[in-house]
Specification:
mainly alpha, CHAD domain, 10 helices
Length: 319
């Protein structure tokens, strides 16, 4: 039996919603439902999404499967950060383990993005330079293979199985278990203010030519704001939902521009890392790639502030 066949045989059966005790139909919450019901419905939805993407993530044939699994992980973590009191006392340990899952997913995702992007860049090079470009990319493919092994071990671990059970339990938390008195009706729209203020403070604290890491931190703040706004929109009336949609649209654009910036920084750093041991052909191609990434980085730096002003205007309309 080949090692490939053995690997397939040992791949665990995917966990199903039913195995976690979730109902056959996804949870739903209408605009009139309490805030806690919206939080539980969101956890239920994202957990099902994560489970549906797990087999494709393990297989690794389509990078989009891992990407969407990671999106589900991040959304659940954001929900538990902003609304932990609405789902029960065990929210924080679950959120911490979602952070661990995000790290192992993120390592492979970074390589997926890097490899896909470099292949696109190299395809535009002169045909004489493309073989050296492919040899350069092959180094990162090998590194991704190692990272994927770590990911699949994590997805087969007791820690991951316990995490799934923990999320499922939070999504089923009964009303009487929630730390919410009848006199208090938490507004999910009000939850938007906290991540917005964090983002605003981070923007205000930036120096004129901010370090790359500071702009990456802005993207993370913006992502948290977007996820919180998405949850708030699910519980909002029509007029407020429209305002939240504008905020979500602006934060999505913010993420895209600063994501391009971070991808360029990461690509340039990884490509520079091969130069000490590169031959002349790979060195030449690597230099061209780094130049391309620095131009992409500069464009993002010239663009992000205008989008931030759109976020400001959209959030003020919501408030």
């Amino acid at each position: 039996m080949t090692s490939e066949a053995t690997s397939r045989r040992r791949t665990p059966e995917p966990t199903t919603p039913a195995a976690l005790g979730l109902p056959a139909e996804p949870a739903k919450a209408g605009p009139e439902a309490p805030a806690a019901a919206h939080v539980r419905a969101k956890l239920d939805h994202e957990l099902r999404e994560l489970l549906s993407r797990e087999p494709g993530t393990r297989a690794g044939a389509d990078p989009e499967e891992l990407h969407q699994m990671r999106v589900a992980q991040r959304r659940m973590r954001s929900v538990l950060k902003s609304s932990s009191a609405l789902v029960g006392a065990t929210a924080e340990p679950v959120r911490a383990d979602l952070g661990w899952l995000g790290q192992v997913l993120g390592e492979v995702r970074d390589y997926d993005v890097l490899i896909g992007h470099l292949r696109e860049v190299i395809a535009d090079f002169d045909v004489r330079d493309q073989p050296a470009g492919r040899r350069l990319v092959s180094r990162f493919v090998s590194e991704r293979t190692t990272a994927r092994r770590r990911l699949n071990r994590a997805l087969s671990s007791p820690r991951y199985a316990t995490l799934l059970q923990g999320i499922a339990q939070l999504s089923r938390t009964a009303e009487h278990e929630i730390d919410e008195t009848p006199a208090e009706k938490p507004s999910l729209a009000a939850d938007v203010r906290k991540p917005y203020r964090k983002l605003a403070r981070a923007v205000a604290a930036l120096p004129p030519n901010p370090p790359d890491d500071d702009l990456h931190a802005l993207r993370i703040h913006g992502k948290k704001l977007r996820y919180t706004a998405e949850l708030a929109r699910s519980a909002a009336k029509k007029k407020q939902a429209a305002k939240l949609s504008e905020l979500i649209k602006a934060t999505r654009k913010f993420q895209t521009v600063l994501g391009d910036h971070q991808d360029a920084v990461f690509a340039a750093e990884k490509v520079r890392g091969v130069l000490p041991n590169a031959d002349a052909e790979i060195g030449f191609v690597a230099g061209r790639i780094v130049e391309h990434e620095l131009a992409k980085r500069a464009h993002a730096r010239a663009t992000w502030l205008d989008i931030w002003h759109r976020i400001e205007a959209a959030e003020h309309a919501v408030s």
